[in-house]
Write a structure and sequence with these properties.
about 45% helix; 6-stranded antiparallel β-sheet; single chain; alpha+beta; Alpha-Beta Plaits; Beta-Lactamase; 5-stranded mixed β-sheet; 2 domains; 11 strands
């Protein structure tokens, strides 16, 4: 292979390998900017479009960031980077006789070549991810320009891969939250409660400490649903859930347990005090549209006194809740 061919192939090999050597966008683009600089012996920059489409952010530079070309550029600016992005075409600045667009960001005696990062798609309009800029002392010949175009395509691929990875990550987080939270209240669901309770029981047994389980039952839900509809009853549940989430400690876990029940898992011996504090806060909520006060009954059980397994503790808390309702008391502890 001739030295001229090698000078083109080696930077392209670096650029292609960059896509597989890292999962992070920044090091990928740094290698690609370096490849563009090596092809021309000049300085290169890569700008990517912001999510809101208003700005082209300086994402990578070679040999080093900090010169005039590494600044952010508004998409609507009269700038070769912005023009290349908007028009999806190659723009050369610094040569009055060759180009109608003279932008002046290249230094005296140098050219700035702007290549849009475009991905062509079948049956879809091309996606423009940003712009590759090379500042060099002379206009690149046809083989070098073709190699720069290849680098621009690889940069577009890298940018799109990063966006897709971010989207997949967000989707995964959303699905994970969906699998572990109650859709009505945003609290932990029964599946998460079971897992947390098992972990907290194991920790309490290991450390020889206590663990409290408080079961909150929201009263008059059936009556409210019949008189004002399920939406009104759901609104009360959301309000109660919000108070519980705000009242408990950071180490406590609040979960929806049944149709109108919530459980608080509280490490330590302060479960009864927490239950009293939360019940009082709920009692201060504004009445429903029918004028009915929002109230709860609470049953409290603790490890190891009332049970050593999650099933035993929850059953003890249910018995205590039934006892509170029968006695007309807001809170009852398990026997």
């Amino acid at each position: 292979m001739s030295s001229e061919a090698r000078a083109l192939v080696d930077p392209l090999l670096w650029a292609a390998r960059a896509l597989g050597q890292s999962t992070d966008l920044e090091p990928r683009l740094a290698v690609l900017a370096g490849a563009a600089a090596a092809l021309t012996g000049g300085v290169s920059h890569i700008h990517l479009a912001a999510e809101d489409g208003s700005t082209l952010h300086a994402a990578a530079a070679s040999p080093a960031p900090g010169d005039d070309g590494s600044r952010d550029v508004p998409v609507d600016a009269a700038d070769g980077i912005a023009v290349s992005f908007r028009d999806r075409r190659e723009v050369v600045s610094g040569e009055v006789e060759h180009e109608s667009v003279v932008l002046g960001q290249a230094s005296a005696g140098a050219l700035a070549v702007h290549l849009p990062l475009v991905l062509e798609r079948q049956s879809q309009s091309p996606d423009v991810e940003g712009v590759l800029t090379v500042v060099t002392s002379e206009r690149p010949d046809a083989p070098v320009l073709d190699a720069l175009r290849a680098v621009a395509v690889l940069a577009a691929v890298a940018a799109q891969q990063s966006r897709l990875e971010a989207t997949l990550g967000e989707r995964s987080d959303w699905l994970d939250r969906l699998a572990h939270t109650d859709p009505l209240t945003g609290l932990a669901n029964r599946r998460t409660l079971d897992r947390v309770l098992e972990l907290e029981l194991a920790r309490a047994a290991r450390q020889g400490s206590q663990l409290c389980v408080a079961l909150f039952g929201v009263e008059s839900q059936d009556d409210l649903s019949r008189s004002h509809g399920a939406g009104a009853a759901d609104d009360v549940l959301r309000r109660v859930a919000a108070v519980l989430a705000e009242t408990v400690r950071l180490v406590d876990t609040v979960a929806r347990y049944g149709r109108a029940e919530f459980v608080v898992v509280a490490p330590g011996s302060t479960g009864l005090a927490m239950a009293n504090r939360a019940a009082a806060a709920i009692a201060r909520l504004d009445p429903t549209d029918s004028g009915q006060p929002v109230s709860v009954s609470v049953g409290v059980a603790s490890f190891p006194v009332h049970g050593t397994t999650s099933e035993e503790l929850l059953t003890a808390a249910e018995r205590a809740l039934d006892g509170a309702r029968q006695q007309g008391a807001p809170i009852a502890a398990a026997d």
